[in-house]
Write a structure and sequence with these properties.
The chain is mostly helical. Helix content is 79%, strand content 0%. The longest helix has 33 residues.
Length: 276
């Protein structure tokens, strides 16, 4: 058995190297393009730049207004993650702890809701949001994100709650604790990795989302980074060096966040049992 395991390791390492190259090589090409002139990109897109033009990042930052775009994206992503954590946490707690009639129907509803494409509801949503004053409003966009990301987050947090013994909650209720105290003091400390994972997934999805953002936000001062980058690209003729630099500026915060929270994110996601 030991020999078989040793024999399989080179093949496993080869697969990991291929996957790493698949993820890293495009980013390296993207970085090299951001440090070139447009002429160098058209002549040889895969070669090293003759001179590293770091000033491209400063130009892209100012011309694409990436500072304001990143601020809007941060506000939207953090609000989405926090809202989804609260909504999904309460919904998952109700699904696992309350005596609901036919709970399987609720779970089926969440599965269907998380799989339906948002394009089906785009036109009625646009009409409704215009009538109630939420069109071209960041809060209106955040509400939509809460609705489309909460079903999956509810299923994710539910898997953590199923592993929490109910005896802890029963003991707290015997001591006079109410439902809010039981959830915040007893249950939440046990399931916070799942809540954090759900919030991170929802926040990153909101940060990268484009279709809803470009549809529901028109004011240039409210544009998230994804739409600001698109507008910048459309406005050039195009200068792919500056577009690449602006794209890297948008990717950098997510990359740093994932590196910092990588361990918590992976542990929370894998321990939920939803990875297959």
């Amino acid at each position: 058995m030991a020999r078989r395991g040793t024999a399989k390791r080179p093949f496993a390492y080869l697969i990991l190297i291929i996957l790493a190259a698949y993820a890293v090589v495009p980013m390296v090409i993207f970085l090299l393009a951001s440090l070139k002139t447009p002429g160098e990109i058209s002549q040889s897109p895969l070669s090293l730049p003759g001179k590293f033009r770091w000033e491209n990042f400063a130009t892209a930052w100012s011309d694409a207004d990436m500072g304001r775009g990143l601020g809007n994206s941060a506000l939207i992503a953090v609000s989405t993650g926090a809202g989804v954590a609260v909504i999904a946490g309460c919904a998952a707690y109700a699904l696992t702890r309350l005596a609901l009639p036919k709970p399987g129907l609720f779970i089926m509803y969440l599965l269907v809701a998380s799989s339906l494409p948002i394009q089906l509801f785009l036109v009625p949503l646009l009409s409704m949001w215009t009538k109630i004053g939420l069109y071209d409003n960041r809060f209106g966009l955040i509400v939509i994100y809460w609705a489309i990301y909460s079903p999956f987050a509810t299923l994710l947090i539910r898997t953590f709650l199923l592993a929490v013994p109910k005896d802890y909650e029963a003991a707290a209720r015997l001591d006079g604790a109410g439902e809010i105290t039981v959830f915040t003091r007893i249950v939440f400390p046990l399931i916070w990795p799942g809540v954090l994972t759900a919030a991170l997934v929802a926040g990153l999805q909101a940060y990268n989302e484009f279709l809803l953002a470009v549809t529901f936000i028109q004011d240039s001062t409210k544009l998230p980074a994804s739409v600001a980058l698109y507008s910048f690209q459309q406005g050039l003729s195009p200068n792919w060096a500056l577009v690449s630099a602006a794209g890297l500026i948008m990717v950098l915060p997510v990359l740093v966040l994932f590196i910092v929270l990588n361990r918590r994110f992976v542990e929370g996601y894998t321990s939920s049992g939803m990875t297959g």
